[in-house]
Amino acid sequence: MVAIEVSGDAKKVDVKAPGKIKGGLVQMNLKNSSKGPRDAQVIRVEGEQSADDVLKVIMSQGGPIPDWLQDGGGVGETAPGKTGSATQNLAEGKYVLVAAPSEDGEPATAELQVEGGSSEGELPKTSAEIVAREYSFETKGLKSGKNEVLYKNEGQELHHVVGAPMLPGKTLDDVKKFVSEEGGGGRPSGPPPIDFENGFTTAVTDGGIDQVTDLELKKGKYALVCFIQDRKGGPPHVMKGMLAEANVQ
Q1: How many CB atoms lie within 10 A of CB 46?
Q2: Per residue in 159-197, pLDDT tens?
Q3: 1-121: CATH class
Q4: Do strands 20-32 and 13-16 pair parallel, antiparallel, or not at all (unpaired)?
Q5: Helices (H), 29-171
Q6: Sign of the dihedral through C-alpha 171, 150, 20, 16
Q7: What are the residue ranges spanned by the domains of the chain?
Q8: Is 220:239 a contact under the CB 8 Å cutoff?
Q9: Residue 104: how many CB atoms within 10 A of its CB?
Q10: Residues 6+ positions from 82 with CB-CB distance below 8 Å
Q11: What top-level class would CATH report for the domain 123-249?
Q12: Contact at 8 Å (CB) between 162 and 226?
C-alpha cells in the first residue's frame, strides 16, 4: 500500500509520498487534507526528463504528449477530508506524482521510484466497469452508493473519465452543446446541465492500463466525458464525440 497525502488550499498544494516503492500490483491511498477536491496522478517517465518537463506537458492545453510520458494512473479526484483509493500494476521505473490546485496555480509534484514489478498481480474482482476507447465509453454494473469500479483504457490514446449527474430534464445533447461551447473558447449560453459538484474524475491512463478505483455515485443518469487530447495534440476527446450516458441503478 502506498500512502499519499495532499494538503494546502485552492491556489497552492503540497504532496507527500514515499520516494521508493516496490512495483507490481499496488494499492494507492490518497488522503486529502486540503480545502478542496484533489487527485494524485502518477506518470511514468522514460529518459532524463524532470518533473518540470512533465508539468509543461500537462499544462500545454491541447499540446502534443511526447512518447517519454507513459502509463499514467493514480487516484482520481477525492473530496476534502476523505481518502480515495485505486489499485493497479506499476512497472519498474521513474514516476512523477502530480497533484493540482482547484484554481490557477502550479501543481505540486513528487518523484517516485518503482523497483521490481516485473510480474503483474491480478486486480480485485468487481461487478462494475467503465471501458474507454477512441472515442467512446462502455459501462456496466454501476449502482448508487460506494462502488469498486474496474476502469479500463482499451484505446491507443490517453483517456480519463469525468462523470457527473445530469440535471432533471436535461439530455446528453444539452451536455454536448454546453461542453462544445466551453471547449470552443466561447461562453456557454446557460448554466451547466450537469451537477459537477457531485461528479467524479478518474486518473488519466494510457492505452492498456487497467485499475480498480473507488467511486461514490447517486442513482440516475450520468454524463461521461473525456477532456484529454490525442498524443499528437489537438482538441479534447469530447470534441471528437467521446461523450456517453450511463445509468446508475
Answers
A1: 13
A2: 999 999 999 999 999 999 998 877 555 566 678 999 999
A3: mainly beta
A4: unpaired
A5: 51-58
A6: positive
A7: 1-121, 123-249
A8: no
A9: 7
A10: 32
A11: mainly beta
A12: yes
50-76 burial, b if ≥16 CB within 10 A, otherwise e? ebeebbeebeeeeeebeeebbbbbbbb
Q: Compute, in degrees rounded to 10, the torsion defined by CA atoms 92, 96, 101, 105.
A: -170
107 three-state secondary structure: coil
Phi and psi of 193, rounded to 5°?
-85, 5
With contact defined as beta carbons under 8 Å apart, do 10 and 36 qualify?
Answer: yes
Cell matching residue 71: 502509463
Residue 61: per-residue pLDDT:
84
Amino acid 71 reads: D
**pLDDT interval class at 39 (50, 70, 90):** very high
Task: Return the C-alpha cell found at 117.
Answer: 514489478
Are residues 149 and 114 in contact, defined by beta-carbon separation less than 8 angstroms?
no
Question: Contact, 115 vs 122, CB < 8 A?
Answer: no
Please list, in sequence order, all residues whose beta carbon lies within 8 angstroms of the beta carbon of residue 212, skipping any fewer than 6 positions away. Answer: 86, 87, 88, 123, 124, 126, 148, 149, 150, 151
1-121 and 123-249 have identical folds: yes
